[in-house]
Amino acid sequence: MQQRLDKEWDLSIDPDTVRLFILKAKALSAAVNEDYDDGAEHEVEFDGDRHASHHHDGLVEEASEDLTEEEFRELINDLNIDEAAELIALAWVGRGDYDATEWADAVATARDRPRKRTAKYLLGLPMLADWLEEGLEAIGA
């Protein structure tokens, strides 16, 4: 494991908080993959001339048992503007959009994004957990 001699990056967001987001993102990713892996295609069935009916048990279960996405959204909404910007910047550094040496630029660009859409944006990143991990590693946090 690589040792840090000096703290090069002064983060507003605690790296342990980022690790919590990583765990939540992994849980969300696993839930999506399990739904696809169960083999159910959730076909639309027609009952004579009646309207199409579509049943998806997973949505009911999700609403009652799996609050991971809701928790994820709440955690993001609880972040201040600097923390939210740094979380996005970490994902961008991990994804390769920015190099670790461009950290300040990544944070500044992320800070300019609409605050209301942070949770939706992050949830839309397909490899969020991996990119956050790689971002933390890249900046030595």
UniProtKB/TrEMBL annotation:
InterPro entries: DUF3775. It holds the Pfam family DUF3775. This is DUF3775 domain-containing protein.
